[in-house]
Amino acid sequence: MEKSRRRGRPGHDQDAVLAAAVRLFNTRGYDATSMFDVAESLGITKSTLYHHVSGKEQLLTMAVDRALDGLFEAAEAAVRDEGAATVRLKDLIRRSVLVLADRLEFVTLLLRVRGNTAAEQHALARRREFDRIVTDLVKQAQAEGGVRADVDPATAARLLFGMVNSLIEWYRPDRGAPESIAGTVADLAFDGLRHR
């Protein structure tokens, strides 16, 4: 039998602690949220909270990594797949929207980090690596003739993901199926980038 990595009372495992922290970080801000606030929101003591995590910085790292891990899984699938770079880039856009919909609170927090802590600097470094992957796919798509060559690849990558990332401002599950929204975002993005 596999030993569980989570400890604590039912309903107060590491995932519950992380979810509570992310909600508070998103509503109050990371700096304005204390470990006491997280414990209070769960109805547990601070000492019980420290049974699950070492501190606020660990919670932030875990949260942004949850978002980034999903985005990197999408990127790795796009890089690994065979076929035209334009198709793989469009698929990456679609998959990234699905990650955002599935991990909305985590991605929201990721997009708000500014580099003020070691955890935030780590997250920004990983975001830059993700941006490089997208930029490389844009370059490949341009070389194949599937994407306009008169657009700077890094700018195109930023604009594509600016559209994806804007979903944190308005997307809610009741606004439509994630697959439908992902298709719409990808179609709109590529109707503007394809050769005419």
Automatic annotation (TrEMBL):
Keywords of the record: DNA-binding, Transcription, Transcription regulation
Presence of keyword DNA-binding: yes
Domain spans labelled HTH tetR-type: 11-71
Keyword Transcription: yes
PROSITE patterns: HTH_TETR_2 (PS50977)
PANTHER family: HTH-TYPE TRANSCRIPTIONAL REGULATOR BETI, HTH-TYPE TRANSCRIPTIONAL REGULATOR RUTR
Record's protein name: TetR family transcriptional regulator
Species this chain originates from: Actinoplanes flavus
